[in-house]
Amino acid sequence: MKKPKIILSFVGLVLSTGLIGCSDGESSSESAGTQEASMNSDSQEEDNVDNSADHEGETKSQDEPESSETSSEQSPEGVRQELVMEEDQIFLPSSFPGQAIENVLVSVASNNDQTYSVQYQTSEGEALAHVTGSRFASKQEAVAELESFQNGKKVGPFEQGGEDLGYGITGYGEGATGSQYFSWEEGNWLLSLSSATEDEIDHPAVAREIVEYLESHTLPAPGELGVVDIHYERGSEEVNVDIRWQDGSMVYELRTGRDPLEAMQMATSMEE
After folding, report:
1. Are 32 and 87 found together in one domain?
2. Same domain, yes or no, for 93 and 211?
3. Which of 27, 35, 130, 251 has the most CB atoms around it within 10 Å of its CB?
4. Which own/partner contact pairs does 216-221 have at CB distance under 8 Å and 24+ positions apart?
5. Which residues lie within the region annotated Disordered (predicted)?
6. Residue 34: what pLDDT?
7. Are residues 1 and 122 in the same domain?
8. Is the domain of 99 the same as that of 32?
């Protein structure tokens, strides 16, 4: 009877060993599955973090404008400090007709050590003036630039047909096909008017108003040349005023669509 016990014990041992092996396999499988799930979870969390970081980067990129030379609108105070050109070579207007200086908005369109470009407008967005300063390689090149701009704008002088503009200044006019021209000189400045003949702009009358204004207000002193070009658009009341002068190797310019006298007010307020 002892042998069956031994056999039964042996069979039990075998069965027990098999069960233990199965339990270990299942435990290992469960452990591996748990570890794999944990790794998958960690990987998913990392992906979520990466995606979140990417999304934040995209949001930041969308929120922040790309770098540009053009600055946001600001008041005239402080714009001079923003420009990188040497302080003594920067000319900017300080007076705008009919506008309180604190209501004038400024945007810098170009800003480096060779040129600056500043745009002025009203708080309602109406353009006032566009001012630039450009450095040329030499004084001779700057003078040549002004001579090119001046070309064809001077009328006369003629022995007859001059207009007395007051203060010892004489202006001269002439006509061409469909157009009329008028000019006069004050110091190193040439001032020129042009318009369509059919519009019958009274050039001498406009010139006298400007001459009168300049008797008590002074345009910037050019090195050798300064030009004021006033052009009335055909068939409309629009006028374009382009004021340029040379100083050393610099050429300065103020352009505006305002009335010529208002343009003079802005130009005579330009200072270093």
Report:
1. no
2. yes
3. 251
4. 217/264, 217/265, 217/268, 218/268, 219/186, 219/189, 219/243, 219/245, 219/264, 219/267, 219/268, 220/91, 220/245, 220/247, 220/252, 220/267, 220/268, 220/270, 220/271, 221/188, 221/247
5. 21-80
6. 43
7. no
8. no
β-bridge partners, 175: 180
For residues 73 and 170, give the distance between their C-alpha atoms in angstroms, rounded to a whole number.
Answer: 43
Residues 1, 103: one domain? no
Q: What is the pLDDT of residues 221-256, one digit of tens each?
A: 999 999 999 999 999 889 999 999 999 999 999 999
Expressed as residue numbers, the domain containing 124 is 79-268
Confidence tier at 55 by pLDDT (50, 70, 90): very low
Q: What whole-number distance in Å separates Cα of residue 127 and Cα of residue 238?
A: 13
| CA–CA dist 231, 252 (Å, integer) | 19
- pTM of the predicted model as reported, rounded to 2 decimal places: 0.73
Angle between helices 260-268 and 203-214 (to 10 degrees): 20
Handedness of CA 62, 63, 67, 72 (dihedral sign): positive
Whether residue 12 is contained in a domain is answered as: yes
**Residues 22-53: tens digit of each pLDDT:** 344 444 444 444 444 444 444 444 444 444 44
Total domain count, the chain: 2
Same-domain status, 85 and 130 = yes
pLDDT at 21: 41
pLDDT digits (tens, 9 = 90+) for 159-194: 877 999 999 999 999 998 899 999 999 999 999 999
SS3 for 58-109 is: HHHHHHCCCCCCCCCCECCCCHHHHCCCCHHHCCECCCECCECHHHCEEEEE
